[in-house]
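Troubleshooting entry. Yesterday's outputs looked truncated, so today I'm pasting the complete records for two proteins to confirm everything comes through intact. If either block looks cut off, that's the bug. Protein one:
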Amino acid sequence: MKHALLILCHTEPKQVEHLLRFFDEDFDCYIHLDRKAKIEPGKWIWLKTIKSKVRFYSKYKIRWGGFSILKTELFLLNEIVKSGQQYDYVHFLSGQDYPIKNLNHIKKFFEEHKGKEFIEYVDLPYKQWEQGTYKRFQYYYLNDWIDYQTLCGCKLIDNLICWQHKSGMKRRIPDQFDKLYGGSNWMSLTGECAAYIIHNQQQYKSFYNRLKYTFAPDEVYFHTLILNSSFAASVKNDSLRYISWVQNFSSPTILTERDWWNIVTTDCLFARKFDWQISAQLIFLIKKYIQTKDTVSITTHGYWQSASYAGHYYDNGLAKGLIKLLPFMNVKTIADLGCGPGWYVALFRRNGYDANGYDGNPNVEEMSAPLFGNGFYCQCVDLTDELEAEEPFDLIFSLEVGEHIPAQWEDIYLTNLTRNAVRYVLLSWAIEGQTGDGHVNCRPNSYIINKMKEQGFAVNTPVSNYLRKYADSWWLKHTIMLFERI
């Protein structure tokens, strides 16, 4: 597939350099540098040397919340369409965005979802937008002439809006469409959808003109056009961007290593905003554990030797189901045997449970520590050795481990689960025919149920089905089971 990156930037050329270096030749870059940037455009031109297809522009002065952002995005989108290159996807990014999945994952995602438009949107009016009003449409916003991001400019624009309100001045609500939509202006569109927007600019010119002097028109224009077109049926209400917002703040927060947990557990492909200095440690972690091309080495005992998150998967649906379920199970202590990077351990600890993680990977201590940030880390143990905790745990948790352990150590592993569980074992085990890295001992559900019964544990079918329903991954929908001590 061929991709185009539509990038708006105003600062930090070094950060944009790292963004460009991440992508390969399947991604062409169209970069617009804010004309009022303090860095001279000439100092950015060298970015063209990083990739063979980088087009660089500096046409508009961009103001936060202004019409200038929409003009710039449409300008770049027009350049992309008129290039003649048939792009499968166009990705709207800022210079402060950064990928949070490895490149193969991103490519595979869009191959599997080809034809879908990824746009985060809401119907307008929306209660969290101007308290459910049409305020952004009803008053004149002069953000293109007054810098709202300065204290003086912010007060001046707010006073102007207040004056319009008190004087009874109201603009008409845009009526070019029966329904208005809004949302994040960071999106991923198919090449066909991008071409539709550009080729129909004249048809929608009155709507475009009406959005002048409107607050953040780029958060309305694309969404309203697309969702009132034939492309609406292909829209997924998801921008694929992780953005951290603080209540009552108009701009997203700068991401740091404190956001690591959210970064590694989100299904999003990109995140923002990054600052190359403030976010340095987080970017280091992303490069080291997510973007690396590290290969997995699997030992004869079945545990992985890897210094990255490659091959591991966190199931957000299952996580939500677990956190809803655990209060009804009267669980206080949890051990995750085969914890991988340790993210489920972090999930449990973040929700008030006394949880510990154990894995055969000799890198588990270093890999897991950033998830906790308080000196805690998961520990390295060989699950094919006989293990017995000083105090057993209310719940033993072990996902996708048994199929990696050769059959001669299967009983030791199962005994380690049951010996150390007071009440429950939550277990998944790949079924026969389920492919995967290092799968040497796949078993049908019935086999595991019988083996656990021999160990004094019976399957709880209703709860198992509940968790399977919550799981996002297809394999857990067929393998996860909760066992209770008989």
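Protein two, checking that the full record survives here as well:
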Amino acid sequence: MSFFIKGKTKNSNNKRTKNNNQGKNNKKRKLPEPEDEEITSSEDEGITLNGEKDTSDSEDENETAQDKKLRLAKIYLQEIERLEKEKLGEEDEVDKNLISKRLKEDYLKESGKFRSYVANEYTPEKLGTIQTFKCREQKNTITCLCVSSDNQYIFSGSKDGVIVKWNCLQGKKVGIIPFVKHNKDVILGHSSKVLAIAISSDDKYLVIGEESSDIQIWDPENLKHIKTFRGHSKGITGVAFKKNSHILYSCSMDKSVKVWNLDEMMYVETLFGHQDKVSSLDTLYKDRVVTSGSRDGTLRIWKITEESQLIFNGHSGNIDIVKLINEEYFISGGEDGQLCLWSFMKKKPVYTIKDAHGINEINNQPNWICSIATLVNADLFASGSYNGFIKLWKLGENFRSAQLLFDIPQIGFINSMVFTSDRKNLIVSCGRDHRLGRWFTNKDVKNCIKFIPLLEQ
């Protein structure tokens, strides 16, 4: 299979899964009536949510492209100045050099060139007291979690079909989206296992992926339902927002990846190519998404604008997880116990850690890699399995190698992990079994969330 595949035109006859409910002319169809809270992947891109053609005059109708760029640049500078003032204090004047430095960093981050070498700051001696978050509503395995941009709230999803909102500082439950029986008229909760969760960069939207194939959109502040996206024919295994936007990517057991626009609350397109269920995905600033193809043994980078994809091969078994380090490198893990470090420019791993979490004494097979957390644009990442330890790793110079920093003891399946944006903490979901199945169960484990301070205050 070739490394680079140029996408065909949007009218190309891609094969679809047997149960896919999209028709042949899925590119242009009418939206539902305004009272219908569902958005399907066959909706018309050119029709507004009220079912009519958008003929309203925009305030920016006469604005030139150059004027728009200038206006947005001014807004961006004002926002940076505001953030810097918050750090220094309202009365202090912001140094122009700070703004210049921030602009340079933001540019490097978005272009994938920014690299922060911080891993040496993390040592076992700096670990703080680990806190445990648990509640009676989430009795079954916690499968996924995400954190608000201000690091104040955690949102966790479980096989109970329950979403819990936690206050990080207090370690308390502050809200719940319950499990409910399916009701087309009113959405009050979820009616199947929750397998994926994501929150937008501005904390405006909380997105939940269900085993039922539905994608539910909620307001993270008050946990009120906003919309339902339908289009996938099987369970949702991953959801992710493009950074600083409301572009959403979803992947599914139906072998497809879909693109959605939450500003317009509409379906954009479907990406075909994987030969087995898509187990996970990740995205950053660019119009790109990286996906893992489970048992088809491939990782793919989809270049949305160019309508093309890159195919990577290196694992010998099921691929469970993939995470971006920056816009040039990413890490994957799976059933073969390997952690593979990849460059966008090479179709084979640039570095491989074999048996990263050791060998299972019962079956003499490598312990699966269940989850990975990356500190974006930095030389630190974490991996989780079910061997009783979370491992922290340091990336080498130029992100082309890795070495173990230290282990953090933690029993159970580590199904999901995320670093807080201030890089001080690691938040982990622990469960009795794997998020996508029950191949074996550890009954000694309590289904919970672990809040791990990495840099003691």
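Both blocks look complete. Sanity check on protein two: The chain is about 10% helix and 35% strand.
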